[in-house]
Design brief:
It contains four helices and ten strands; from the N terminus they run ααβααβββββββββ. It is α+β, with helices and mostly antiparallel strands. It is globular.
Length: 216
Protein backbone atom coordinates (compact mmCIF):
# COMPACT_ATOMS: atom_id res chain seq x y z
CA UNK A 1 0.00 0.00 0.00
CA UNK A 2 2.78 2.39 0.93
CA UNK A 3 4.58 1.52 -2.31
CA UNK A 4 1.49 2.36 -4.38
CA UNK A 5 1.14 5.70 -2.60
CA UNK A 6 4.80 6.46 -3.15
CA UNK A 7 4.52 5.66 -6.83
CA UNK A 8 1.44 7.90 -7.14
CA UNK A 9 3.21 10.81 -5.45
CA UNK A 10 6.30 10.25 -7.59
CA UNK A 11 4.26 10.33 -10.79
CA UNK A 12 2.45 13.48 -9.66
CA UNK A 13 5.71 15.29 -8.91
CA UNK A 14 7.27 14.23 -12.23
CA UNK A 15 4.23 15.52 -14.13
CA UNK A 16 4.68 18.99 -12.60
CA UNK A 17 8.39 19.25 -13.35
CA UNK A 18 9.45 21.05 -16.56
CA UNK A 19 10.58 18.76 -19.33
CA UNK A 20 14.36 18.48 -19.49
CA UNK A 21 15.86 19.03 -22.91
CA UNK A 22 18.55 16.46 -23.44
CA UNK A 23 21.64 17.91 -25.14
CA UNK A 24 23.70 16.27 -27.86
CA UNK A 25 25.67 13.16 -26.97
CA UNK A 26 29.27 13.67 -25.77
CA UNK A 27 30.70 12.59 -29.12
CA UNK A 28 28.98 15.48 -30.92
CA UNK A 29 30.48 18.94 -30.70
CA UNK A 30 28.71 21.65 -32.73
CA UNK A 31 30.77 24.49 -34.13
CA UNK A 32 30.54 27.41 -31.70
CA UNK A 33 32.18 30.16 -33.69
CA UNK A 34 31.96 33.81 -32.68
CA UNK A 35 32.21 35.04 -36.28
CA UNK A 36 31.34 33.82 -39.75
CA UNK A 37 34.03 32.17 -41.84
CA UNK A 38 35.01 31.86 -45.48
CA UNK A 39 36.91 28.63 -44.78
CA UNK A 40 35.89 26.95 -41.51
CA UNK A 41 32.54 25.54 -42.59
CA UNK A 42 30.38 23.17 -40.51
CA UNK A 43 31.36 20.37 -42.91
CA UNK A 44 35.05 20.96 -42.29
CA UNK A 45 34.48 21.25 -38.54
CA UNK A 46 32.66 17.92 -38.56
CA UNK A 47 35.86 16.32 -39.87
CA UNK A 48 38.19 18.28 -37.59
CA UNK A 49 36.40 17.38 -34.37
CA UNK A 50 37.40 13.73 -34.86
CA UNK A 51 41.12 14.56 -34.77
CA UNK A 52 41.44 17.61 -32.52
CA UNK A 53 41.93 17.14 -28.75
CA UNK A 54 38.58 16.49 -27.12
CA UNK A 55 39.29 18.98 -24.33
CA UNK A 56 39.05 21.97 -26.70
CA UNK A 57 35.97 20.94 -28.65
CA UNK A 58 33.53 22.45 -26.18
CA UNK A 59 35.35 25.80 -26.27
CA UNK A 60 34.20 28.74 -28.35
CA UNK A 61 36.12 29.04 -31.62
CA UNK A 62 37.20 32.68 -31.89
CA UNK A 63 38.56 34.05 -35.14
CA UNK A 64 41.68 36.12 -34.58
CA UNK A 65 42.65 36.86 -38.16
CA UNK A 66 41.25 36.76 -41.69
CA UNK A 67 43.39 37.85 -44.63
CA UNK A 68 40.41 39.23 -46.56
CA UNK A 69 39.56 41.58 -43.67
CA UNK A 70 42.83 42.18 -41.80
CA UNK A 71 45.23 42.28 -44.74
CA UNK A 72 47.61 39.70 -46.17
CA UNK A 73 50.85 39.02 -44.36
CA UNK A 74 52.41 37.18 -41.46
CA UNK A 75 53.02 40.42 -39.59
CA UNK A 76 49.29 41.30 -39.22
CA UNK A 77 48.59 37.65 -38.37
CA UNK A 78 51.19 37.62 -35.59
CA UNK A 79 49.99 41.02 -34.42
CA UNK A 80 46.47 39.62 -34.03
CA UNK A 81 47.83 36.91 -31.73
CA UNK A 82 49.62 39.48 -29.59
CA UNK A 83 46.50 41.65 -29.30
CA UNK A 84 44.44 38.62 -28.35
CA UNK A 85 46.92 37.56 -25.66
CA UNK A 86 46.88 41.05 -24.14
CA UNK A 87 43.09 41.33 -24.09
CA UNK A 88 42.38 37.75 -22.95
CA UNK A 89 44.77 37.19 -20.09
CA UNK A 90 43.33 33.75 -19.37
CA UNK A 91 44.14 32.60 -22.88
CA UNK A 92 47.55 34.08 -23.55
CA UNK A 93 49.69 33.12 -26.53
CA UNK A 94 49.57 29.47 -25.47
CA UNK A 95 45.89 29.01 -26.31
CA UNK A 96 45.48 26.28 -28.96
CA UNK A 97 45.18 27.73 -32.45
CA UNK A 98 44.02 26.57 -35.86
CA UNK A 99 45.52 28.10 -39.01
CA UNK A 100 43.77 27.53 -42.33
CA UNK A 101 44.90 28.29 -45.88
CA UNK A 102 42.48 28.09 -48.80
CA UNK A 103 44.21 27.35 -52.10
CA UNK A 104 43.72 29.57 -55.12
CA UNK A 105 43.79 26.82 -57.75
CA UNK A 106 41.51 24.12 -56.36
CA UNK A 107 40.04 25.42 -53.07
CA UNK A 108 41.83 22.74 -51.06
CA UNK A 109 42.33 23.79 -47.45
CA UNK A 110 45.68 23.28 -45.72
CA UNK A 111 45.40 23.29 -41.94
CA UNK A 112 47.90 23.56 -39.09
CA UNK A 113 46.90 22.96 -35.46
CA UNK A 114 49.32 23.97 -32.72
CA UNK A 115 49.00 23.87 -28.94
CA UNK A 116 52.16 25.78 -28.06
CA UNK A 117 53.10 29.44 -27.87
CA UNK A 118 53.37 31.46 -31.07
CA UNK A 119 56.82 33.02 -31.25
CA UNK A 120 58.27 35.28 -33.91
CA UNK A 121 61.86 33.98 -33.87
CA UNK A 122 64.37 32.31 -36.17
CA UNK A 123 65.19 29.45 -33.77
CA UNK A 124 61.66 28.38 -32.85
CA UNK A 125 60.89 24.67 -33.18
CA UNK A 126 57.29 24.35 -32.04
CA UNK A 127 55.67 21.32 -30.46
CA UNK A 128 55.61 17.70 -31.61
CA UNK A 129 51.85 17.84 -30.97
CA UNK A 130 51.48 20.03 -34.06
CA UNK A 131 49.09 18.60 -36.64
CA UNK A 132 49.32 19.08 -40.40
CA UNK A 133 46.14 18.52 -42.41
CA UNK A 134 44.60 18.87 -45.83
CA UNK A 135 40.87 19.03 -46.56
CA UNK A 136 40.18 18.14 -50.19
CA UNK A 137 37.02 16.84 -51.86
CA UNK A 138 35.29 16.56 -48.47
CA UNK A 139 38.09 14.32 -47.16
CA UNK A 140 40.49 15.20 -44.36
CA UNK A 141 44.06 13.88 -44.41
CA UNK A 142 46.03 14.19 -41.16
CA UNK A 143 49.78 13.92 -40.59
CA UNK A 144 51.33 13.76 -37.15
CA UNK A 145 54.99 14.18 -36.31
CA UNK A 146 56.98 10.94 -36.43
CA UNK A 147 57.52 10.29 -32.72
CA UNK A 148 59.78 7.26 -33.31
CA UNK A 149 62.46 9.13 -35.26
CA UNK A 150 62.56 12.47 -33.44
CA UNK A 151 65.65 14.54 -34.23
CA UNK A 152 66.93 17.62 -32.38
CA UNK A 153 67.18 19.53 -35.66
CA UNK A 154 63.52 19.06 -36.54
CA UNK A 155 61.29 22.10 -36.76
CA UNK A 156 57.63 21.29 -36.17
CA UNK A 157 56.51 24.88 -36.76
CA UNK A 158 58.40 28.16 -36.95
CA UNK A 159 57.15 31.66 -37.73
CA UNK A 160 59.14 34.78 -38.54
CA UNK A 161 58.34 38.02 -40.32
CA UNK A 162 59.22 36.57 -43.70
CA UNK A 163 57.93 32.98 -43.60
CA UNK A 164 56.07 30.21 -41.82
CA UNK A 165 57.63 26.73 -41.89
CA UNK A 166 56.04 23.45 -40.87
CA UNK A 167 57.94 20.16 -40.85
CA UNK A 168 61.56 21.13 -41.58
CA UNK A 169 65.00 19.82 -40.63
CA UNK A 170 64.96 16.32 -42.08
CA UNK A 171 66.86 14.86 -45.05
CA UNK A 172 63.90 15.41 -47.35
CA UNK A 173 62.08 18.69 -47.94
CA UNK A 174 59.82 20.94 -45.87
CA UNK A 175 56.17 19.97 -45.37
CA UNK A 176 54.82 23.49 -45.77
CA UNK A 177 56.36 26.90 -46.36
CA UNK A 178 54.20 30.02 -46.52
CA UNK A 179 55.95 33.24 -47.38
CA UNK A 180 55.47 36.45 -45.43
CA UNK A 181 52.90 37.78 -47.92
CA UNK A 182 50.58 34.83 -47.07
CA UNK A 183 50.06 34.39 -50.78
CA UNK A 184 52.96 32.27 -52.00
CA UNK A 185 53.57 28.79 -50.60
CA UNK A 186 55.29 25.49 -51.28
CA UNK A 187 55.11 21.91 -50.08
CA UNK A 188 57.41 18.88 -50.22
CA UNK A 189 57.75 15.48 -48.65
CA UNK A 190 59.12 15.69 -45.14
CA UNK A 191 60.80 13.38 -42.64
CA UNK A 192 59.09 15.20 -39.78
CA UNK A 193 55.47 14.49 -40.71
CA UNK A 194 56.01 11.76 -43.30
CA UNK A 195 53.60 13.62 -45.54
CA UNK A 196 53.14 13.57 -49.25
CA UNK A 197 53.34 16.96 -51.03
CA UNK A 198 50.20 18.83 -50.02
CA UNK A 199 49.52 20.06 -53.56
CA UNK A 200 50.08 18.67 -57.05
CA UNK A 201 52.62 21.39 -57.76
CA UNK A 202 55.45 22.29 -55.39
CA UNK A 203 54.65 26.00 -55.63
CA UNK A 204 51.12 27.31 -55.15
CA UNK A 205 49.11 30.42 -54.37
CA UNK A 206 46.85 31.03 -51.38
CA UNK A 207 43.42 32.59 -51.78
CA UNK A 208 42.44 33.17 -48.14
CA UNK A 209 43.89 32.58 -44.70
CA UNK A 210 42.20 32.44 -41.30
CA UNK A 211 43.46 31.93 -37.76
CA UNK A 212 41.32 30.74 -34.84
CA UNK A 213 41.84 30.28 -31.14
CA UNK A 214 39.89 28.07 -28.73
CA UNK A 215 38.62 29.96 -25.68
CA UNK A 216 36.30 29.13 -22.80
Amino acid sequence: MLQKEWNRMNDAIRSELPHTVVGPPPEYYPLKCSTSSEILTPLLWKSLRDVLPKRILTYCVKRLYASYEDGYGLIPLLRSILVFSLTHRNAGTEAPTLLLFQMEANRDILIVYRDDCWQNRNDGKGSKNTLLMRFSNHHLCVWRADSESTCDSWVYIRSTDDRLMVGAGGKEGVSLVVMGDLYHGSSQRSDVFRNEPLQQTELFSIRNAELYSFVL
